[in-house]
TrEMBL record:
Record's catalysed reaction(s): (sulfur carrier)-H + L-cysteine = (sulfur carrier)-SH + L-alanine
Pfam families: Aminotran_5
Gene Ontology biological process: cysteine metabolic process
Cross-referenced InterPro entries: Aminotrans_V_dom, Aminotrans_V_PyrdxlP_BS, Cys_dSase_SufS, Cysteine_dSase, PyrdxlP-dep_Trfase, PyrdxlP-dep_Trfase_major, PyrdxlP-dep_Trfase_small
SUPFAM superfamilies for this protein: PLP-dependent transferases (SSF53383)
Translocase listed as a keyword: no
Assigned keywords, A-Z: Pyridoxal phosphate, Transferase
Name by which UniProt lists this protein: cysteine desulfurase
Record EC number: 2.8.1.7
Family to which this protein belongs: Belongs to the class-V pyridoxal-phosphate-dependent aminotransferase family. Csd subfamily.
Keyword Transferase assigned: yes
Taxonomic lineage from the root: Archaea, Methanobacteriati, Methanobacteriota, Stenosarchaea group, Methanomicrobia
Domain Aminotransferase class V: 17-387
Length: 398
């Protein structure tokens, strides 16, 4: 399957130029078909019964876990389905045992979902250290070496910035965490959809990402953990092997093993099946080919925006250290107005504002945030050229 051939599987690009995939990607027809097949042909709960429909649903649900695990080379760990990256990160924050004096190291670059759960732990006496990047959003690993101490229980960073597109040196940071005995959590929401990710090679303890940013349905997310060290966020449903209300165990129940202990209640079954199909779709295209395609688009976009007077581009200029998430501003025009004009004039859909990164925007001195164009496999060079042309026309208005 070639990337050029996949456009037929998406409806929206046939009449709009969708450049907002960092928020939510589009969904291809085979994913929709797989979800509808579940609803129409074998809709039943999973792990709850022996009739033919529940057996099929349970197997497909298990297959979905296996496929997603394989996608990130996480077969040796536990892959838990969540609603999104936010829930996955909160499960780690709630599932670890915290004591006053524990230390968390994170960065000012983080999406609120990888910052607020840690800030809230200050109520338990946990110290939160936030590292500052350079003007392009990159870090010297030495700053992590200085911040991580023997008291550091967890280091939490985004693999790729959702605002600047910067790719962070996660392997080097993982090595530091191992040296100090700290857990390492990666927010992979913007990396897993765009280039090959191997959790074994990285050496992280937790990898969190979302299905809706990688051609899957909304309401699907993933928490991968190297070891099952977390207390479950919720209990009930199929999370147990036994319940003893007479006090035979301290808790009154015995948790089961594997992902089931972390997935209380009826899950988003059709969503899991759709996510599995989305992963299959990405595998058929080839993550290396997807990455090369996006790099070509990103290089064209960066070069084009750089040549426009009154346009300011943020993040790395070298495409070797970024993905196709490109933030920019136009002097004296509010980012929201730019986004509105792009839609009205050329049917180009981008995001504007702080991108759930208020501390980063404040750090960069961007009171109103930025305009963000985010590229994916279904975008074309013609769309990039149209964006550049339209931004230049808007900049002439100043």
């Amino acid at each position: 399957m070639n990337i050029e051939d996949c456009l037929a599987d998406f409806q929206i690009p046939q009449y709009l130029h969708y450049l907002d995939s960092a928020a939510t990607s589009l969904i291809p027809e085979p994913v929709i078909v797989s979800m509808n097949e579940y609803e129409r042909q074998y809709r039943a709960n999973v792990g709850r019964g022996m009739h033919r429909l529940t057996r099929v649903a349970t197997q497909r649900y298990q297959d979905a876990h296996d496929r997603v695990s394989g996608f990130i080379e996480g077969q040796e760990g536990t892959t838990v389905f969540t609603r999104n990256t936010t829930e996955a990160i909160n499960m780690v924050a709630a599932g670890l045992e915290w004591e006053p004096g524990d230390r968390i190291v994170t960065t000012v670059m983080e999406h609120h979902s990888n910052l607020l759960p840690w800030l809230r732990l200050r109520q338990k006496g946990v110290e939160v250290i936030t590292i500052r990047p350079d003007s392009e959003g990159t870090f010297d690993t030495g700053s992590f070496d200085e911040a991580i101490t023997a008291d550091t229980k967890l280091v939490a960073i985004s693999h790729v910035s959702n605002a600047l597109g910067t790719v962070q040196p996660v392997r080097e940071i993982a090595s530091l965490c191992k040296e100090y005995g700290s857990y390492f959590l990666i927010d992979g929401a913007q990396s897993v959809p765009h280039f090959p990710v191997n959790v074994q090679n990285i050496g992280c303890d937790f990898m969190c990402f979302s299905g809706h940013k990688m051609l899957g349905p909304t309401g699907t997310g993933i928490l991968w953990m190297k070891e099952e060290i977390l207390s479950p966020f919720m209990v009930g449903g199929g999370t147990v092997d036994d319940v003893d209300i007479e006090g035979g165990t301290a808790e009154g129940y015995v948790l089961t093993e594997g992902y089931r202990r972390y997935e209380a209640g009826t899950p988003h079954i059709s969503g899991a099946i759709g996510l599995s199909q989305a992963v299959k779709y990405l595998e058929n295209l080839g993550m290396d080919d997807i990455f090369r395609h996006e790099q070509k688009l990103t290089e064209r976009l960066l070069a084009g925006l750089a040549g426009i007077d009154k346009v300011n581009v943020y993040g790395p200029q070298d495409i070797k250290n970024r993905i196709g998430v490109v933030s920019f501003t136009i002097d004296r025009i509010h980012p929201h107005e730019v986004a509105y004009l792009l839609d009205e004039r050329a049917s180009i859909l981008v995001r504007s504002g702080d991108h759930c990164c208020i501390p980063l925007m404040r750090y960069l001195g961007l009171e109103n945030g930025t305009v963000r164009a985010s590229l994916y496999l279904y975008n074309t060079l013609e769309e990039v050229d149209l964006l550049i042309q339209t931004v230049e026309e808007i900049a002439r208005m100043v």
